[in-house]
């Protein structure tokens, strides 16, 4: 969301020189520390950038956002239009200088590194940037590079920490602020905060919450990073306790009802947003003829008092839920789903549209 006019003026006023009130990449730094932000196309990265821009406009701010690094524009709307990343679009909406939004294909590219050095970057902040940073990049900012990582490191290092944590059904997670080193998410931890995990929260909501919390931790810790005390207090990670959180794949999105309902419910929460979860069921018409139907499972819960009704593979409806029998006498209650080519609907809407047809699960 674009800031108010006074806020926009405060943002632009922190850049000295340049014909448009902002510095070019080759002009000298101001007395404020030069911070470079690096973020991915994800909205959560844009939210961190927004927090930094807000903080940088405060009268007592010790830093300015000197540049933004994000992924190059990509095609959206089925490939018809080339669009900037969420981070770049947020910056442009704020009135951030376009020539200071850098979109390298690789951060190890010598042309990019030359432009990066010319900015006199003193600290880099990454939030879901998504690319491994080479040593020749990490050696440039004197205060280092720090990363907001949505897990309690060394747990869930990797591309999908929130999703894999939810898939595992964790009751507690958190966010860590750590210095970046060449090894994956293995740098010393400056600060972290723990949070309890609700049984029904989905990955997009938890991601948003953790990055918002991480933004607050980052801004609180910036003075210690700039005065050097953060490096002294940062704690090395115990690599022996590290777990990995590999990137999700669309092939993983299928649900198999020969697993317990709790496992499936956690997967639905973890894969919400992308790639989602899919299942195949059978629709049995009045003549007993089966037709296989592929559906997307949107919202679920674990049945607390399941009693089998009908055959072992029969899908029933109880109240507002579609109840699918699973392993170990458990059952998954589907509250929202999506049929091919249709909008998301409730289980009650599906029931009303069956017109006497029955449903069966497929393993």
UniProtKB/TrEMBL annotation:
CDD domains: FMT_core_Met-tRNA-FMT_N, Met_tRNA_FMT_C. Gene3D superfamilies: Formyl transferase, C-terminal domain, Formyl transferase, N-terminal domain. Transmembrane segments: none annotated. The keyword RNA-binding does not apply. GO terms for cellular component: mitochondrion. Its EC number is 2.1.2.9. Pfam families: Formyl_trans_C, Formyl_trans_N. Residues 247-354 form the Formyl transferase C-terminal domain. Keywords: Protein biosynthesis, Transferase. GO terms for molecular function: methionyl-tRNA formyltransferase activity. InterPro entries: Fmt (IPR005794), Formyl_trans_C (IPR005793), Formyl_trans_C_sf (IPR037022), Formyl_transf_N (IPR002376), Formyl_transf_N_sf (IPR036477), Formyl_transferase-like_C_sf (IPR011034), Met-tRNA-FMT_C (IPR044135), Met-tRNA-FMT_N (IPR041711). Residues 46-208 form the Formyl transferase N-terminal domain. Belongs to the Fmt family. This is Methionyl-tRNA formyltransferase, mitochondrial. It comes from Dioscorea cayennensis subsp. rotundata. The lineage of its organism: Eukaryota, Viridiplantae, Streptophyta, Embryophyta, Tracheophyta. The gene is LOC120279954.
């Amino acid at each position: 969301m674009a800031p108010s006019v006074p806020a926009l003026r405060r943002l632009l006023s922190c850049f000295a020189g340049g014909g448009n009130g902002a510095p070019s990449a080759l002009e000298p730094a101001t007395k404020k520390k030069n911070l470079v932000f690096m973020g991915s196309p994800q909205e959560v990265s844009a939210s961190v950038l927004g927090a930094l821009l807000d903080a940088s406009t405060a009268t007592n701010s010790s830093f300015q956002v000197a540049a933004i690094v994000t992924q190059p524009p990509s095609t959206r709307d089925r490939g018809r239009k080339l669009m900037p990343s969420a981070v770049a679009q947020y910056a442009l909406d704020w009135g951030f200088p376009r020539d200071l939004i850098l979109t390298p294909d690789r951060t190890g590219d010598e042309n990019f590194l030359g432009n990066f050095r010319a900015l006199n970057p003193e600290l880099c902040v990454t939030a879901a940037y998504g690319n491994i940073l080479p040593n020749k990049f990490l050696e440039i900012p004197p205060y280092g590079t720090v990363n907001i990582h949505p897990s309690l490191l060394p747990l869930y290092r990797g591309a999908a920490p929130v999703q894999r944590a939810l898939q595992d059904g964790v009751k507690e997670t958190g966010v860590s602020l750590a210095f970046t080193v060449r090894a994956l998410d293995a740098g010393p931890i400056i600060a972290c905060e723990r949070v309890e995990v609700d049984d029904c929260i989905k990955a997009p909501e938890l991601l948003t919450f953790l990055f918002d919390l991480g933004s607050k931790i980052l801004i609180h810790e910036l003075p210690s990073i700039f005065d050097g005390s953060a490096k002294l207090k940062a704690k090395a990670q115990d690599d022996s306790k590290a777990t990995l959180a590999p990137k999700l794949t669309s092939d993983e999105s299928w649900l198999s009802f020969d697993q317990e309902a709790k496992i499936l419910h956690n997967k639905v929460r973890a894969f919400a947003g992308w790639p989602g979860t899919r299942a195949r069921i059978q629709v049995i018409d009045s003549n007993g003829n089966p037709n296989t139907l592929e559906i997307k499972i949107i919202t679920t819960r674990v049945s607390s008092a399941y009693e089998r009704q009908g055959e072992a593979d029969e899908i029933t409806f109880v109240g507002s839920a579609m109840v699918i029998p699973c392993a170990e006498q458990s059952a998954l209650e589907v509250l929202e789903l999506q049929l091919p080519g249709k909008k998301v609907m409730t289980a009650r809407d599906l029931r009303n549209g069956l017109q006497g047809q029955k449903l069966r699960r497929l393993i």
